[in-house]
Amino acid sequence: MKKNFGKKIGLVLLTALTTIGLAACGNGGSSSSNKTADGKTKMTMWTFVDAQGTFFKNAAKSWNKTHKQKIDLTVNVLPFDQMNQKLTVALQSGSGAPDIADVELGQGAIQLKADKPAYYPLNSALKPYMNNLVKSRLDNFKKNGNYYGLDYHVGTTVTYYNTDIMKAAGVDYTKIKTWDDYEKAGEQVKAKTGKWMNEVEYSAMFQYDAMVTQQHADYIKNDKATLTNAANVRVLTQLQNWIYKDKIARTAVGGSIDNDQFFAEMNKGNVASVTMPSWYMERIADHMPKLKGKIAIAPMPVFNEGDYRSAGGGGTGTMVTNQASNKKLAAKFVVWAKASKGQAVKIWEDLGFDPVRSDIWSEPVMKEDNKYTRYFGKDIFDTFVQLKSQVTSTTKTAKISPDLNDYMLKNTFPSTLLKDKMTPKAALQKANDALNK
After folding, report:
1. Contact 232, 212 (CB under 8 A)
2. How far, in Å, CA of 259 to CA of 366, rounded?
3. Lowest mean per-residue pLDDT among 203-207, 384-388, 394-398
4. DSSP state of 68
5. Which residues of 122-148 are buried (b: 16+ CB within 10 A; e: fewer)?
6. 34-153+314-360, CATH topology level
7. What is the DSSP string of 129-171?
8. CA–CA separation, 52 vs 346, rounded Å?
9. What keywords are assigned to this protein (predicted)?
């Protein structure tokens, strides 16, 4: 028994050592274990959006038709929170991460806190495309001169109007140029139709963020909260007034305007307008079938002359982890999948996004028949072209960003928007003091 037991131990140790040796070769990218039988390089990708996973599967097929180095891509779609937790553990432990990962803008701010991010720079792969890319979207995933992620879209923020409600109220939405105009239009809409001009989110910051950045302002400077500046106070006051003073809006059902509850409200024709990034077109087209042909897209109203009429909203960077078996090839593939001309068109056709490669925005292909031109009209992209020079970057991402976002959604918005308990100025001062301790 002991003799056999010794043999078994020896076999186990030999097997373990062999496995470790193969794994070491695999991490270096030199083992045949990273190749399929027909010579393709195996890669894995994690994302939290089905459509984005499908986009990259199709991108891999297109890549293989035109490139010598073939790719065998496996895409895993995980729930948002689960993916972030799993990815964080894998990056911190140094093993178990995918080759490629979709990283949401806020999560990117957290993960790029490290002095040496656990991602591979995309600089070399980006170089041939840089002149045609919207730089502000690259800067969201930049650290120490390195670009670690490439976004799907610019996220041009616009105002979506229900034209049936506008007509019933006798309002010409094309003449709404300022937020004062918008407020007056809202009063007319409420008086003549009984509909809400807007619903104000308190569990998300898309509207708030866009209205701050369009004023050439921010709420972070040198990794400190600057929530007490005039622009922030002006925005929060405006949103609170819409609900409690002017009564042209209410707090959003479900807390935000990016959930099924709100989609149902707008689809029923109960809300006259929303201000959201371009990717919201997909939400409208998919969840509001009754409004087909009834949604107009216009530049954001402004507070003052000289303000931007748009802002970049949201974002998801596709990133290559330092654990990728062939980091250079993965970087080339990721950048090609989003920045090459044909793929940028696919981002519009398949996802409904305004691609980061902006030179194609005014090309005829952007007016060709697809899901979005059928819903909104063939000239839909004309508005985005008009706003190209007006799109300011989103507010800065920094080490304090996750804490600031968390505090605003848990404390500041509930005390001013969900309930009329504090003045915006006092609530923002309280947030500023708490965050900067």
Report:
1. yes
2. 28
3. 394-398
4. S
5. bbebbeebeeebbebbbebbbbeeebb
6. D-Maltodextrin-Binding Protein; domain 2 (3.40.190)
7. GGGGB-HHHHHTTEETTEE--EES---B-EEEEEHHHHHHHT-
8. 11
9. Cell membrane, Lipoprotein, Membrane, Palmitate, Signal
Whole-model pTM above 0.90?
no
Distance of CA 269 to the CA centre of its chain: 27
pLDDT of residue 109: 76
pLDDT in tens, 77-100: 999 999 999 999 999 999 999 999
Alpha carbon of 291 to those of 115, 192, 269: distances in Å?
48, 20, 8
Indicate the CATH number for domain 158-311+374-435: 3.40.190.10
Helix 179-193 crosses helix 230-244 at what angle (to 10 degrees)?
10
The token duo for 23 is 């794994």
Q: How many CB atoms lie within 10 A of CB 61?
A: 11
Sheet strands (E) in 195-329: 198-200, 220-221, 224-225, 249-251, 273-276, 295-298, 310-311, 316-320
Mean pLDDT calculated for residue range 23-37: 54
Per-residue confidence (pLDDT) for residue 229, from 0 to 100? 96
Check if the beta carbon of residue 416 is closer than 8 Å to that of residue 208: no
**Lookup result for tokens 């186990």:** 12
Query: Which has the closest alpha carbon to 39: 72, 17, 67?
Result: 72
Q: How confident is the model at residue 396 (pLDDT cuts 50, 70, 90)?
A: low
Residues 171, 183: Cα–Cα separation, whole Å = 12
Residue 391 has a pLDDT of: 83
Phi-psi region of 386 (alpha: psi -120 to 50; beta: other; left: phi over 0): alpha
Q: Report, as an integer, the average pLDDT of 11-24.
A: 38
The CA-based angle 242-409-269, given to 5 degrees, is: 45
388 band by pLDDT with thresholds 50, 70 and 90: confident
Which one, of 83, 80, 108, 74, lies nearest residue 330 by Cα? 74
Angle of CA points 218, 157, 45, to nearest 5°: 90
One-character DSSP codes across 287-301: H-GGGTT-EEEEPPP
Does 365 have pLDDT greater than 50? Answer: yes
**Residues 6+ positions from 182 with CB-CB distance below 8 Å:** 159, 176, 197, 301
Whole-number Å distance between alpha carbons of 200 and 273: 11
* 34-153+314-360 shares its CATH topology with 158-311+374-435: yes
- Cα Rg of the chain, angstroms: 24
* 263-312: pLDDT as tens digits: 999 999 999 999 999 999 999 999 999 999 999 999 999 999 999 999 88
Give the residue extent of every domain in the chain. Answer: 34-153+314-360, 158-311+374-435
3-state DSSP assignment of residue 101: strand
Token pair 């010409």 is at which residue? 172
